[in-house]
Write a structure and sequence with these properties.
This protein has 7 helices and 10 strands. By secondary structure, it is an alpha+beta fold. It has 2 domains: about 150 residues, 3-Layer(aba) Sandwich (Aminopeptidase); about 80 residues, Alpha-Beta Plaits (2-Layer Sandwich), CATH 3.30.70. A 5-stranded mixed beta sheet has the order 1-2-4-3-5. It is elongated.
Length: about 250
Protein backbone atom coordinates (compact mmCIF):
# COMPACT_ATOMS: atom_id res chain seq x y z
CA UNK A 1 0.00 0.00 0.00
CA UNK A 2 1.48 3.41 -0.94
CA UNK A 3 2.12 5.56 2.12
CA UNK A 4 0.00 8.35 0.64
CA UNK A 5 -3.12 6.16 0.89
CA UNK A 6 -2.52 5.12 4.51
CA UNK A 7 -4.73 7.87 6.05
CA UNK A 8 -7.68 6.83 3.87
CA UNK A 9 -7.17 3.19 4.79
CA UNK A 10 -6.99 4.02 8.50
CA UNK A 11 -10.20 6.03 8.28
CA UNK A 12 -11.92 3.16 6.49
CA UNK A 13 -10.90 0.71 9.22
CA UNK A 14 -12.36 2.96 11.92
CA UNK A 15 -15.62 3.26 10.01
CA UNK A 16 -15.89 -0.50 9.56
CA UNK A 17 -15.21 -1.14 13.26
CA UNK A 18 -17.48 1.70 14.37
CA UNK A 19 -20.26 -0.48 15.77
CA UNK A 20 -17.79 -2.55 17.80
CA UNK A 21 -16.18 0.58 19.21
CA UNK A 22 -19.50 2.16 20.19
CA UNK A 23 -20.47 -1.11 21.87
CA UNK A 24 -17.17 -1.07 23.79
CA UNK A 25 -17.77 2.51 24.92
CA UNK A 26 -21.27 1.68 26.11
CA UNK A 27 -20.10 -1.47 27.91
CA UNK A 28 -17.45 0.42 29.89
CA UNK A 29 -19.93 3.22 30.64
CA UNK A 30 -22.47 0.71 31.97
CA UNK A 31 -20.09 -0.63 34.63
CA UNK A 32 -18.08 2.30 36.02
CA UNK A 33 -15.05 1.39 38.12
CA UNK A 34 -12.83 3.61 40.25
CA UNK A 35 -9.08 4.17 40.07
CA UNK A 36 -6.91 1.04 40.38
CA UNK A 37 -10.04 -1.15 40.46
CA UNK A 38 -10.98 -1.08 36.76
CA UNK A 39 -10.74 -4.86 36.29
CA UNK A 40 -13.77 -5.31 34.02
CA UNK A 41 -13.03 -2.17 32.01
CA UNK A 42 -9.40 -3.20 31.56
CA UNK A 43 -10.47 -6.60 30.21
CA UNK A 44 -13.03 -5.05 27.87
CA UNK A 45 -10.44 -2.67 26.42
CA UNK A 46 -8.15 -5.61 25.62
CA UNK A 47 -10.72 -7.82 23.91
CA UNK A 48 -10.85 -6.31 20.41
CA UNK A 49 -7.09 -5.91 20.03
CA UNK A 50 -6.51 -9.44 21.32
CA UNK A 51 -8.80 -10.72 18.55
CA UNK A 52 -6.71 -8.77 16.02
CA UNK A 53 -3.53 -10.48 17.19
CA UNK A 54 -1.98 -7.87 19.45
CA UNK A 55 0.48 -9.26 21.98
CA UNK A 56 -1.00 -8.50 25.40
CA UNK A 57 1.03 -7.82 28.52
CA UNK A 58 -1.23 -7.67 31.56
CA UNK A 59 -0.81 -6.50 34.17
CA UNK A 60 1.75 -3.90 33.14
CA UNK A 61 4.04 -1.57 35.05
CA UNK A 62 3.25 -3.24 38.37
CA UNK A 63 -0.36 -2.02 38.15
CA UNK A 64 -3.05 -4.70 38.22
CA UNK A 65 -5.42 -2.78 35.95
CA UNK A 66 -2.85 -1.59 33.42
CA UNK A 67 -1.93 -3.38 30.22
CA UNK A 68 0.11 -2.99 27.08
CA UNK A 69 -0.91 -4.48 23.72
CA UNK A 70 1.70 -4.47 20.93
CA UNK A 71 1.36 -5.04 17.20
CA UNK A 72 4.03 -4.86 14.51
CA UNK A 73 7.81 -4.81 14.63
CA UNK A 74 8.73 -1.44 13.17
CA UNK A 75 11.42 0.75 14.72
CA UNK A 76 9.02 3.63 15.45
CA UNK A 77 6.86 2.81 18.48
CA UNK A 78 3.60 4.76 18.60
CA UNK A 79 1.81 4.65 21.94
CA UNK A 80 -1.95 5.09 22.19
CA UNK A 81 -3.27 5.70 25.71
CA UNK A 82 -6.61 4.30 26.85
CA UNK A 83 -8.23 5.58 30.04
CA UNK A 84 -11.18 3.80 31.64
CA UNK A 85 -11.59 4.82 35.29
CA UNK A 86 -14.72 6.60 36.48
CA UNK A 87 -15.58 9.30 39.00
CA UNK A 88 -16.80 8.40 42.51
CA UNK A 89 -20.59 8.53 42.87
CA UNK A 90 -20.93 9.92 39.33
CA UNK A 91 -19.66 7.35 36.85
CA UNK A 92 -18.20 8.21 33.46
CA UNK A 93 -18.94 11.94 33.49
CA UNK A 94 -15.48 12.66 32.05
CA UNK A 95 -15.90 10.35 29.07
CA UNK A 96 -13.19 7.82 29.80
CA UNK A 97 -15.34 5.15 28.18
CA UNK A 98 -15.09 7.18 24.96
CA UNK A 99 -11.34 7.61 25.44
CA UNK A 100 -10.90 3.84 25.78
CA UNK A 101 -12.96 3.09 22.68
CA UNK A 102 -11.18 5.80 20.69
CA UNK A 103 -7.80 4.41 21.71
CA UNK A 104 -8.77 0.87 20.76
CA UNK A 105 -10.07 2.10 17.41
CA UNK A 106 -6.87 4.02 16.77
CA UNK A 107 -4.73 1.00 17.62
CA UNK A 108 -6.77 -1.28 15.36
CA UNK A 109 -6.52 1.18 12.48
CA UNK A 110 -2.77 1.73 12.89
CA UNK A 111 -2.23 -2.03 12.98
CA UNK A 112 -3.43 -2.20 9.37
CA UNK A 113 -0.65 0.12 8.20
CA UNK A 114 2.04 -0.79 10.74
CA UNK A 115 4.19 -2.79 8.33
CA UNK A 116 3.84 -0.23 5.55
CA UNK A 117 4.86 2.66 7.81
CA UNK A 118 7.45 0.79 9.87
CA UNK A 119 5.52 1.05 13.12
CA UNK A 120 5.08 -0.85 16.30
CA UNK A 121 1.67 0.04 17.71
CA UNK A 122 1.48 0.01 21.51
CA UNK A 123 -1.95 0.34 23.08
CA UNK A 124 -1.41 1.32 26.71
CA UNK A 125 -4.18 0.77 29.21
CA UNK A 126 -3.62 3.57 31.72
CA UNK A 127 -5.71 3.29 34.89
CA UNK A 128 -6.32 5.83 37.63
CA UNK A 129 -6.42 9.07 35.67
CA UNK A 130 -9.03 10.65 37.93
CA UNK A 131 -7.00 9.90 41.05
CA UNK A 132 -3.69 8.17 41.52
CA UNK A 133 -1.60 9.25 38.53
CA UNK A 134 -1.66 5.98 36.60
CA UNK A 135 0.31 7.32 33.64
CA UNK A 136 3.01 8.74 35.91
CA UNK A 137 3.36 5.38 37.65
CA UNK A 138 3.60 3.59 34.31
CA UNK A 139 6.18 6.11 33.14
CA UNK A 140 8.26 5.48 36.25
CA UNK A 141 7.93 1.72 35.72
CA UNK A 142 9.35 1.99 32.19
CA UNK A 143 6.17 1.25 30.23
CA UNK A 144 6.85 4.23 27.94
CA UNK A 145 10.63 3.80 27.62
CA UNK A 146 10.57 2.70 23.98
CA UNK A 147 7.63 4.88 22.92
CA UNK A 148 8.62 7.60 20.44
CA UNK A 149 5.28 9.39 20.59
CA UNK A 150 2.17 8.86 22.72
CA UNK A 151 -1.27 10.09 21.71
CA UNK A 152 -4.74 10.16 23.21
CA UNK A 153 -8.12 11.64 22.34
CA UNK A 154 -10.35 13.28 24.96
CA UNK A 155 -14.01 14.19 24.42
CA UNK A 156 -14.86 17.85 24.73
CA UNK A 157 -17.19 20.62 23.53
CA UNK A 158 -14.97 21.55 20.57
CA UNK A 159 -12.46 19.93 18.22
CA UNK A 160 -8.84 20.76 19.11
CA UNK A 161 -6.01 18.93 17.38
CA UNK A 162 -3.38 19.72 20.01
CA UNK A 163 -4.92 20.59 23.35
CA UNK A 164 -2.57 21.83 26.06
CA UNK A 165 -2.77 20.24 29.47
CA UNK A 166 -2.44 22.13 32.73
CA UNK A 167 0.07 21.26 35.43
CA UNK A 168 -1.68 19.90 38.52
CA UNK A 169 -0.86 19.67 42.19
CA UNK A 170 -3.15 18.39 44.94
CA UNK A 171 -3.10 18.82 48.70
CA UNK A 172 -5.06 17.26 51.53
CA UNK A 173 -5.29 19.48 54.59
CA UNK A 174 -6.47 18.23 57.99
CA UNK A 175 -7.40 20.31 61.01
CA UNK A 176 -7.47 19.08 64.60
CA UNK A 177 -9.72 20.56 67.23
CA UNK A 178 -11.48 19.19 70.29
CA UNK A 179 -14.81 17.39 70.42
CA UNK A 180 -17.52 18.49 72.79
CA UNK A 181 -21.28 18.16 72.94
CA UNK A 182 -22.75 20.94 70.84
CA UNK A 183 -25.69 21.54 73.19
CA UNK A 184 -24.37 20.61 76.63
CA UNK A 185 -20.90 22.16 76.53
CA UNK A 186 -20.05 23.74 73.17
CA UNK A 187 -17.70 26.19 74.90
CA UNK A 188 -15.39 23.29 75.78
CA UNK A 189 -14.91 22.34 72.15
CA UNK A 190 -12.55 23.61 69.46
CA UNK A 191 -14.36 23.44 66.14
CA UNK A 192 -12.08 22.03 63.44
CA UNK A 193 -14.77 22.64 60.82
CA UNK A 194 -14.52 26.37 61.50
CA UNK A 195 -10.88 26.21 60.40
CA UNK A 196 -11.98 24.68 57.10
CA UNK A 197 -14.53 27.48 56.67
CA UNK A 198 -11.89 30.15 57.27
CA UNK A 199 -9.53 28.43 54.82
CA UNK A 200 -12.19 28.27 52.12
CA UNK A 201 -13.01 31.95 52.55
CA UNK A 202 -9.30 32.80 52.35
CA UNK A 203 -8.93 30.80 49.12
CA UNK A 204 -11.99 32.53 47.67
CA UNK A 205 -10.52 35.96 48.45
CA UNK A 206 -7.16 34.89 46.99
CA UNK A 207 -8.71 34.04 43.62
CA UNK A 208 -8.87 37.69 42.52
CA UNK A 209 -5.06 37.82 42.65
CA UNK A 210 -4.46 34.61 40.71
CA UNK A 211 -2.80 35.04 37.33
CA UNK A 212 -4.64 34.00 34.15
CA UNK A 213 -4.50 30.23 33.80
CA UNK A 214 -4.10 29.60 37.52
CA UNK A 215 -7.00 27.71 39.09
CA UNK A 216 -7.83 26.53 42.60
CA UNK A 217 -10.74 24.26 43.46
CA UNK A 218 -11.58 21.78 46.16
CA UNK A 219 -14.03 20.03 48.43
CA UNK A 220 -14.56 19.38 52.12
CA UNK A 221 -13.87 15.69 52.73
CA UNK A 222 -14.58 15.66 56.46
CA UNK A 223 -16.75 18.18 58.27
CA UNK A 224 -17.69 16.16 61.33
CA UNK A 225 -19.62 13.00 62.06
CA UNK A 226 -22.66 14.12 64.06
CA UNK A 227 -24.59 17.36 64.16
CA UNK A 228 -24.63 17.43 67.95
CA UNK A 229 -20.86 17.10 68.32
CA UNK A 230 -18.36 19.92 67.84
CA UNK A 231 -16.05 18.47 65.15
CA UNK A 232 -12.64 17.58 66.51
CA UNK A 233 -11.35 16.82 63.04
CA UNK A 234 -12.02 18.31 59.63
CA UNK A 235 -10.33 17.98 56.27
CA UNK A 236 -10.42 19.29 52.73
CA UNK A 237 -8.82 18.35 49.44
CA UNK A 238 -7.78 21.02 46.97
CA UNK A 239 -6.26 21.01 43.50
CA UNK A 240 -4.17 23.74 41.94
CA UNK A 241 -3.75 24.02 38.18
CA UNK A 242 -1.55 26.28 36.08
CA UNK A 243 -0.17 26.52 32.57
CA UNK A 244 3.38 26.06 33.89
CA UNK A 245 4.42 23.74 36.72
CA UNK A 246 6.66 26.47 38.16
CA UNK A 247 3.52 28.43 39.04
CA UNK A 248 2.46 25.70 41.44
CA UNK A 249 5.50 26.02 43.68
Amino acid sequence: MPTATAPDHVEDIVRRRGADLVELSHAIHAEPELAFAEHRSCAKAQALVAERGFEITAPAGRLDTAFRADFGSGPLVVGVCAEYDALPEIGHACGHNIIAASAVGTALALAEVADELGLTVALLGTPAEEAGGGKALLLEAGAFDDVAVAVMAHPGPSDIAAARSLALSEVIVSYRGKESHAAVAPYLGVNAADAVTVAQVAVAVLRQQLAPGQLVHGIVTDGGQAVNVIPGRAAMQYAMRAAESESLR
